[in-house]
Amino acid sequence: MAHPHEAAPSGPRSAPLPADSEPAGSGPDTRGPRLASVVLFVHDHDESAGFYQDLLKMEVTVRTATAALLVGRNGFQVYLRTVGPKAAHPVGHLGAQYVIWTADGPDDFQRCERVLRAQSDHVYTRHGEGFTLIEGRDPSGLPVLVAYPGPDEVARLEIIARYHV
What we know:
The protein is an alpha/beta fold and 165 residues long. It has 2 helices and 8 strands; from the N terminus they run βαββββαβββ.
C-alpha cells in the first residue's frame, strides 16, 4: 500500500505509481502468493532481535532458547534462529542473499540510516534511478539494505551491479 511522503522523487521516470494501478500482468486471475516471512540464521537471536526491533519497528511475539519471531504492523514476519558464532554466510551460494526493506518515508529512511550507522562502521549509500539504497550490517555481519522510495512508488529500471554479479 502506498504511503504519502513529504518529499517526492524527481526525474522523468521516477513518478510514483498511482495508488489504484496494478503492474502489467496483474489482475484477479494473475495474482499469486506474496512474501509473508523471512528466516534469518544469526549468531545470537537475542542480540539480533533488539537490532531488528529498532530498525524495522517490529515486535518480538515469540522467543525460545534458540529463536525469536518478530512481527510488523502489516503482519510481515522475521524469524531469527541462532546458529552460533562460527556459522558462515557465503555469498554467491544458492538461496536468498539479500533482503531489501523499504523505509516508510524520508524521515524513516534517515532513522534507518542512524540505526545502521550505530551498529556498523561499514554503511554505504547508493543512488538508483529515482531511489536511494543504504546498506549496513546486522549484529551477525549480515548485509541489511533499506531503500526509499519503495518499488511500489518508483519502478526499478535497473539492477544494481553488486546484486547480480
